[in-house]
């Protein structure tokens, strides 16, 4: 971080990555209450899933403020399911 290029990269990282870590701390992840690498990875994955779910809900609410976020999420899931059922390149 001693070079100007390194400092510029670090400045870009702060808004993109550090707020995720702060969110995990706000949800109670100050230290791991489990032992072992497998258990710690499971806790981290769970926190990542919660983070992604919160972001999805926030974006659904922002995209369609007049509708409940659950309806927007169901519609997106239905469209994704229909897209996955279509034959690819047949």
Description:
74% of the residues lie in helices and 0% in strands. With 90 residues, the chain is mainly α.
Largest sheet: none
Described by the principal axes of the CA atoms, the overall outline is extended
Percent range for helical residues?
A: over 70%
The total count of strands amounts to 0
* Rounded Rg: 19 Å
The separation of the N and C termini measures 53 Å
| Low-confidence runs of at least 5 consecutive residues | none
Secondary-structure element series: HHH
The percent range for strand residues is under 5%
- Determine the mean pLDDT: 81
| SS element count, helices | 3
Structural class: mainly alpha
Question: What key attributes describe this structure?
Answer:
90 residues; mainly alpha; 3 helices; extended
């Amino acid at each position: 971080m001693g070079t100007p290029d390194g400092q510029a990269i670090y400045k870009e990282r702060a808004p993109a990555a550090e707020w995720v870590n702060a969110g995990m701390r706000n949800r109670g992840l100050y230290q791991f209450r489990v032992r072992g690498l497998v258990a710690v990875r499971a806790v981290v994955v769970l926190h990542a899933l919660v983070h992604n779910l919160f972001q999805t809900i926030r974006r659904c609410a922002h995209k369609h403020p007049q509708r409940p976020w659950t309806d927007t999420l169901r519609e997106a899931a239905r469209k994704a399911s229909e897209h996955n059922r279509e034959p690819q390149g047949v």
